[in-house]
């Protein structure tokens, strides 16, 4: 019983970790690659072109 | 788990981003700088006679190049996080994750994130004609998601039908079509645009191969501890 509860809560924290890391990754790609704010766009400009992001 | 995911992603993303930035500065930047001469109107290639290829002297622009390194490391770290999440889910379902399979993951990542969008929206030089950026970004995200899901169905589906569904998913965004410009307006010579597009894809493949290999390696080492 105890082991089952433990592994269940372990599974839940694994899913949370996966979701958290996935969301952070998406957030980084969105902000660094897609956000159109002027300064950010200029700073990331060359990398966006070189990695094939839609830039302008 | 959180720590294991982050460790693999940060190592792999930073290394791949750094190498991608150096390759970009060496092989892609000259085309970008030449294109800017045409974009700004300093040079034109329409009109009387051919335009000589402008010399781009080797020079380091500290701020601009440092920003390229920074953003390249950031973007590849973001990709690495998504890649290790997918790797971890696959491992839970019985897939083996190490440096060798990581290489395949990396190449598949390149196909999903760079090659598939480029199939209908080629990497653009500054000044190229293109449809409205918001629409292209939406198409870009949807295409990457569809291609990633399609590749997963082909790789992990246990019969012919999931693989066929995967192939359809991969083709679908291109059959629907990317948002496109209504006219040709780019001031940049086609020779330059062609070299830029193939170099951008080549650098992407190298960076993703490194990304997947390192992510797989660090992931499997984390297992051993």
Automatic annotation (TrEMBL), chain B:
The keyword Membrane applies. Pfam families: CbtA (PF09490). The chain crosses the membrane at residues 67-90, 102-119, 139-156, 163-180, 200-219. Keywords: Membrane, Transmembrane, Transmembrane helix. InterPro entries: CbtA_put. It comes from the Bacteria. The keyword Magnesium does not apply. This is Cobalt transporter. It comes from Pseudooceanicola atlanticus. The lineage of its organism: Bacteria, Pseudomonadati, Pseudomonadota, Alphaproteobacteria, Rhodobacterales.
């Amino acid at each position: 019983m105890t082991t089952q509860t433990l592994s269940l809560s372990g599974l839940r924290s694994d899913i949370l970790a996966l979701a958290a890391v996935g969301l952070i990754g998406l957030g980084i790609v969105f902000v660094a690659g897609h956000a159109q704010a002027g300064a950010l766009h200029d700073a990331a400009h060359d990398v966006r072109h070189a990695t094939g992001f839609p830039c302008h | 788990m959180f720590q294991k995911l982050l460790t693999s992603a940060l190592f792999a993303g930073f290394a791949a981003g750094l190498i991608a930035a150096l390759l970009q500065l060496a092989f892609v930047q000259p085309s970008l700088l030449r294109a800017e001469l045409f974009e700004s109107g300093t040079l034109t290639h329409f009109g009387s006679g051919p335009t000589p290829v402008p010399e781009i002297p080797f020079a380091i622009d500290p701020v601009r190049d440092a920003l390229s390194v920074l953003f390249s490391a950031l973007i590849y770290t973001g990709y690495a996080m998504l890649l290790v999440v997918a790797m971890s889910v696959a491992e839970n379902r019985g897939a083996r994750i190490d440096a060798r399979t990581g290489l395949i993951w990396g190449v598949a990542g390149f196909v999903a994130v760079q090659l598939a969008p480029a199939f209908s929206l080629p990497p653009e030089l500054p000044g190229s004609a293109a449809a409205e950026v918001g629409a292209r970004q939406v198409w870009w995200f949807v295409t990457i998601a569809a291609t990633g899901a399609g590749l997963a169905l082909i790789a992990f589906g246990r019969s012919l039908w999931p693989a066929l569904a995967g192939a359809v998913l991969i083709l679908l965004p291109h059959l629907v079509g990317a948002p496109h410009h209504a006219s040709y307006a780019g001031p940049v010579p086609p020779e330059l645009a062609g070299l830029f597009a193939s170099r951008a894809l080549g650098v992407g493949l190298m960076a993703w191969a490194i990304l997947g290999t390192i992510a797989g390696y660090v992931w499997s080492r984390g297992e051993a501890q």
